[in-house]
Amino acid sequence: MEEVYEFLKAVGTYYLATVENGRPRVRPFGTVDLFDGALTIQTGLSKPVAQQIKAEPRVELCAFDGTRWLRVAADAVEDPRVEAQEHMLEAYPSLRAMYAPGDGNTAVFRLVNAEATFSSFTAAPRTVRF
Q1: Which domains occur in the chain, in start order?
Q2: How many Cα atoms are found within 13 Å in the side-chain-facing hemisphere of 7?
Q3: Measuring CA to CA, which residue among 104, 39, 86 is closest to residue 95?
Q4: Which residue, 58, 63, 56, 53, is CA-closest to 32?
Q5: Which of the residues in the chain have pLDDT under 50?
Q6: What is the pTM for the complete model shown?
């Protein structure tokens, strides 16, 4: 999990895929944190992505660092604790212009039942689970 976190932090932007009415939806994302033993992401509850995750929690994200790419398939489970929101916003202070801990909009999702695969054109894929 730590290696996945470090990869995502290093690339800065990854792409999160959700499902809406049976159709894939993909968008750039940039938040990732380690909180209370879990890899977490953040969005606003008012956004369609949050509603898509709540309706169908199985998500996938993908990132590329120029040489290797990472795919993570996981269940995204909301962590409603204000402490999770505070921790995320400490890691991304620029988000405080739009979000505040306990504001009823800030949502942190834990990635559980995750399978992360590191791939490249020069090495065999390597999978980790957490």
Answers
A1: 2-129 (2.30.110.10)
A2: 22
A3: 86
A4: 63
A5: none
A6: 0.96
